Structures are given as structure tokens and as C-alpha cells.
């Protein structure tokens, strides 16, 4: 930004990759900021071991345990054999990125009633991962649905 009076400055929003906290900082226009170099690798989710999630590097077959804190909201959508991109900085896992949408099975919901085919009505449904989302009234147990992993919203029945 270049205000009418004084020197230019840069207003930023930064996210701490370890804790996930967002903070706003303002820098003078000419200042240099150290760049963080992240190693990214595609890994496959194998299984959950206690509290940790076990991933396997698809190239080296090396296994890696990931804490739920590093997964963030992605933990609500992880199923076995799912691919994810893991970012590592100085040996620490800082983020796990998954696809923008996933297909999951409904394991628990109230039964749909005859005539509940119109749009607008919603009911809670539990996915196979344990996450609860709002779905249309016509969705039943055993149906597969597509869910947006960024917002946690139902997209469509598969």
C-alpha cells in the first residue's frame, strides 16, 4: 500500500504452520523476509495407530507417523488408501493437504420419509470417518456422498 503521506508498506496475513494460528503483520516495502523452503511429497494414508496417522511414501515405501495436530481438518476425511501431500520443514511435518472433495459412505442417519425428495430440507448424517455433515432428506444409510473437504458441506450423492 502506498499511503498519501509517508513510505509504502506491505500488509500481510501469515499462518504459523506448526500451530495453525493466523496473524497480521505490516512490513516496510523494501524489507527482506526469509523464505521457508518446504519439502513436499505424495504419501498414502495406511491406517490410524492410536492417536497418530501412519502414511507411506509412495516412492521410497518409508512409513511416517503424523500427529492429528498436523492434519488439522483433514483428519475428519481420512480413509485408508487415500493420497495426501505432506509438507515438511526442517524434519517437522507442517501441513497435510488432501483432495478438495472426497467420496465417503453414510453410516448413520435418520431414515428418509416418502415425499422428502424436494430440495431445502437437511438432516445430520455421520460419515464413515465419524464426521457429521448436513445432507438432504433423501440420503439413507449406505449411500455414498461427495463432501467438500474445505467447507465440510455435502456436494452430491455418488
Descriptive overview:
The protein is mainly beta and 158 residues long. The chain folds into two domains: 39-97, Beta Barrel (OB fold (Dihydrolipoamide Acetyltransferase, E2P)), CATH 2.40.50; 101-157, Beta Barrel (OB fold (Dihydrolipoamide Acetyltransferase, E2P)), CATH 2.40.50. The chain is 3% helix and 49% strand. The chain has one helix at residues 68-71; strands at 9-15, 22-28, 39-49, 52-57, 63-66, 83-89, 92-97, 101-109, 122-127, 132-136, 144-148, 154-157. The strands form three sheets. It has a five-stranded antiparallel beta sheet with strand order 5-4-3-6-7. A hairpin with a 2-residue loop joins strand 3 and strand 4. The longest helix has 4 residues, at 68-71. The protein is flat.
Provide the spatial order of strands within the biggest beta sheet.
5-4-3-6-7
Strand composition percent: over 45%
Structural class, by secondary structure, is mainly beta
Question: What is the fold named in CATH at topology level of the largest domain?
Answer: OB fold (Dihydrolipoamide Acetyltransferase, E2P)
Overall domain count: 2
Question: Characteristics of this structure?
Answer:
single chain; 158 residues; mainly beta; OB fold (Dihydrolipoamide Acetyltransferase, E2P); 2 domains; five-stranded antiparallel beta sheet; 3% helix; 49% strand; flat
